[in-house]
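--- STAGE predict ---
source: upstream dedup step, 1 unique chain passed
mode: sequence only
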Amino acid sequence: MSEQKNNDIEVIDESDRDDDRSSMDKVVGSLTNEIEVFSQAASIYFGKFHDLHQGSEAKKKNSSLSDILTNAHKAHKAAWKHICENSEVHKENERQANRILPKSAIDNFHRWLDDSTD
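--- STAGE serialize ---
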């Protein structure tokens, strides 16, 4: 009797790995985009704060400290406006919030950001 040899061949299904890879690429890409938006917002904040501080300093001759909170508030608004306009995560959060919050809540937030009197 001859001895029969069985050779098992393992088949690796790469299709699942491609899906995993593309999902991971999407997550990493989204995260990278959000980091970019937030780092730009930080740059906007500090740039705006710097410009406002210099303007206060020029007007008040070394007494610009009284404007520091107002300037910080304006800089925060500029940074948040950038995030609202550029962050996909923020846009999704707003879509979700619109489902449970009154429309006026989101509208009030956008009016606050657009308030040119600040």
